[in-house]
Amino acid sequence: MTSAHDRLIEPISTYYGLLRRVHEFRRPATYLEIGVHEGHSLAFAQPGTRIVGVDPFPNVADPPPDCTIVAATSDAFFADPIALHGRPVDLAFIDGLHLWEQALRDFANVEAVSRPDSVILIHDCNPIDEITSSRDRTTVIWSGDVWKTIVAVRRHRSDLTVHTVAVEPTGMAIITGLDPTNTVLLDRFDDIVTEIGRLEYADLVATNHEDPHNLVAPDWALVRDLLDS
Questions:
Q1: Is 77 exposed, middle or buried (0-12, 13-18, 19+ CB in 10 A)?
Q2: Which tens digit of pLDDT belongs to each residue from 95-132?
Q3: What three-state secondary structure class fits 132?
Q4: d(CA 9, CA 219)
Q5: Segment holding 205, helix H or strand E
Q6: Is the CA virtual torsion 127, 128, 130, 134 positive or negative?
Q7: DSSP of 163-202, one letter per residue?
Q8: Rounded Cα distance, 213 and 127, in Å
Q9: pLDDT tens-digit map of 72-94
């Protein structure tokens, strides 16, 4: 339940703000981040959290305490996730290649090493427009076509609870109700890629009235209730 105090807190405006608040609320024992770049978001982890960051070309000058940076692709990492030391992931943040099929595979692989009550966050799921959501980067702000990942998850894993918070600049998905034993996304991966890969930005715009991403407002009271579910 959300307290009166929480309902007085200002709305969340950015994905960094949302990520920070999720860390403060969940205080995960183990946090996994896919796509760390310079490591700025790693700093949101709270004291006592074991951090693992994965990036093929990390540029983290000052990692936080109890942090291991794995210089590898996410696929290579999940082939042998030794840096987790057998610990399940309590909170994960996927912000890698900005290509939807990779984000989908990352999600499936993260879920397999998580707990049923863990939370997985995926960045860039609420695109601004067609040009910033293309597969090739030509703009400063670029979400890629990660929005298709959420369409795929909602179509093929109806058992999951999926919401996309409309934080700036390009949204953040929150996925709960995990089932680490479910292999549907990986088992059907090629067929899903063929199906969802046909979608274009125009298809997203045309179906906005159906709310394919289950959008919620960037308000902490609402988000906290999602994390409590």
A1: buried
A2: 998 999 999 999 999 999 999 999 999 999 999 888 98
A3: helix
A4: 9
A5: helix 201-206
A6: negative
A7: EEE--BTT-EEEEES--TT--HHHHTHHHHHHHHHT--HH
A8: 11
A9: 999 999 999 999 999 999 999 99
DSSP string for residues in 65-124: TTEEEE-S-HHHHHHS-GGGTTPPEEEEEE-SSS-HHHHHHHHHHHHHTEEEEEEEEEE-
∠ CA 83-61-125, rounded to 5°: 70
SS3 30: strand
Residue 56 has pLDDT above 80, yes or no: yes
From CA 58, how far away is CA 62, in angstroms rounded?
Answer: 11
Give the other-Cβ count within 10 Å of 225's Cβ: 14
Residues 6+ apart with CB under 8 A from 9: 220, 221
Q: Are 144 and 94 in contact (CB under 8 A)?
A: no
CATH class of 4-228: alpha beta
- For 127, the token pair is 């695109």
Helix, strand, or coil here: 210? Answer: helix
How far apart are alpha carbons 166 and 15 in whole angstroms?
Answer: 9
* Helix 100-112 and helix 147-156, axial crossing angle in degrees, nearest 10: 50
